[in-house]
Amino acid sequence: MKRFVLTMSAMAMVAGVYAQETISLQGCYELALQHTPLSGQAALYGELAASKEERLGLAYRPQVSLNGQWSYQSDVFSLPFSIPGAETPEIPKSQYQATVGIEQSIYDGGMVRQSREASKRELAANQQKVEVDLYKVKESVNSLYFGILRIQEAEKNLEAARNTLLERKKVIDAGFSTGVLLQSDKSAFEKEILSIEQQLVAAEAEKEGLVAMLGDKLGQPLSVDAVLTLPGGTIPLEDEATINRPELSYLSEQKTVLSQAGELIAARTKPKVSAFARGGFGSPNPYNFFKTDLSGFYMAGVRLYWPLFDWGASKQERQELQIQEQLLENSRSDAMSQFENGTLQWRKKWLASDEVMKRDAEIVRLQESIVREYAARLEGGTVTSSDYITALDQLTRAKITARMHEIDKAWYQVQYFTLTGNL
Question: What is the pTM of this model?
Answer without folding.
Answer: 0.79
